[in-house]
Amino acid sequence: MEINETLIKTKIDNIFVKLYTGMTLENLRDVKHFLSDEVYEKYASILEENKKKNQKQIYDEINVKNSRVVDIEEQEDKTVVHIELISRYMDYIIDNSTGNIIFGTDQRRIEKKNYITLEKKNDVKEIDGVRKCPSCGASMSINKTGVCEFCHQTYPLEDYDFIVTSIRVEE
Fold this sequence. Notes:
By secondary structure, the chain is α+β, with helices and mostly antiparallel strands. Helices cover 22% and strands 36% of the residues.
């Protein structure tokens, strides 16, 4: 499979920002279809744990400084792309009752290395010009939310394109 590295880098930069924005907004709905079930559950459990503690994780002024494709593996049933993404953002946790910062800082951005893996099945289906909900048949905007506005079904992007299958963050 031929890989367009510029397109992959743009895709992962957008997914990364969408994921961390979703964490801040406490709603992963708009990014869920870009993530494997395991990655989605990892971040959803972080949100749930913060809610139990009456806390909110804030990723403020987030941006991607650089991303690069480190490796591309052609496997028997899928293509795996490994990416190194350098991000910068303010990272802090607030108490929901008081609004006070209980961890981190809102005074300066920190830089982190993120190692992200994308996978795409080799036998993916061809995406038509208009994407339809697999449940009710309504037109869907995959880049906007990936969730049908009528029946709330999540678009099965793993059957058509790359999805994020792992994220590892280093300081």
